[in-house]
Design goal:
By secondary structure, this protein is α/β, with parallel strands linked by helices. Helix content is 36%, strand content 18%. It has a 5-stranded parallel sheet, with helices on both faces. Strand 4, helix 5 and strand 5 form a beta-alpha-beta unit. The chain is globular and about 55 Å long. It binds flavin mononucleotide (FMN).
């Protein structure tokens, strides 16, 4: 079983990474193979709206999203982590969501993977990021796991949040338990398009 933590903080070893690492420690204690992917120092560009991924099932933009695609596909459980930047998730977190448009083919999508979330704010904005992440998790037909919301500002401050660190550890344990359930959406359930307009005919 592979559990992936995706940190969308540009800060190296910041609070999001600290909490994700604690989550991964919880998962590892229950036998999971763990990996952390941090966008810090990486090149994750925004979607250019070319739509070529709909037919090809892959994105033409050659940047650090390419290895992340592979890791997302290989994972059984994914915990998305982002600090709050200007009252929402970071630009990189949103770019990863947009670029996941390319994960739309059988065997190359996020369906039936377990999804959890860790968000960190100095003061305001957590609920907006959580809503966006759980909408994403629903739309991708992932099985939603719990979230951890933490309030910390300075680099490393999250370590002092004992209850927050404990909750992150438990989230890792919970993700492993949920993956073990081998949940699957019925294959006949529609994927991707739940809103209708002239383009859907
Ligand atoms: C550009 C920028 C914008 C931020 N905007 C907010 C905000 O709108 N609301 C908030 O509560 N904290 C905000 N913060 C504070 C961070 O969420 C906080 O420092 C957090 O601990 C950073 O997590 P990290 O160490 O994982 O990067 C902002 C920080 C930066 C650098």
């Amino acid at each position: 079983m592979k559990i992936l933590g995706v940190s969308c903080s540009p800060r190296k070893k910041g609070n999001t990474v600290i909490l994700l690492e604690e989550m991964l420690r919880g998962a590892a204690e229950h036998g999971a193979d763990i990996e952390l992917f941090s966008i810090s120092g990486k090149d994750i560009r925004g979607c250019d709206g070319c739509y070529s991924c709909i037919a090809k099932g892959e994105c033409h933009i050659q940047d650090d999203m390419q290895p992340l695609y592979e890791k997302l596909i290989a994972a059984d459980g994914i915990v998305f982590g982002s600090p709050i930047h200007f009252y929402g998730m970071t630009a990189q977190a949103k770019a990863i969501m947009d670029r996941s448009f390319a994960l739309n083919k059988p065997g190359k999508n996020l369906a039936n993977k377990v999804g959890g979330v860790i968000v960190v704010a100095g003061s305001i904005g957590i609920i907006d990021a959580l809503k966006d992440y759980y909408f994403f998790i629903t739309l991708k037909q992932m099985l939603p796991a719990n979230f951890v919301a933490a309030y910390a500002t300075g680099k490393g401050d999250a370590k002092r949040l004992k209850k927050g660190m404990d909750a992150a550890f438990r989230l890792g344990e919970e993700i492993v338990q949920l993956v073990d359930k081998k949940f699957e959406f019925p294959p006949e359930f529609p994927r991707n398009f739940f809103a209708f307009g002239t383009h859907t005919h």
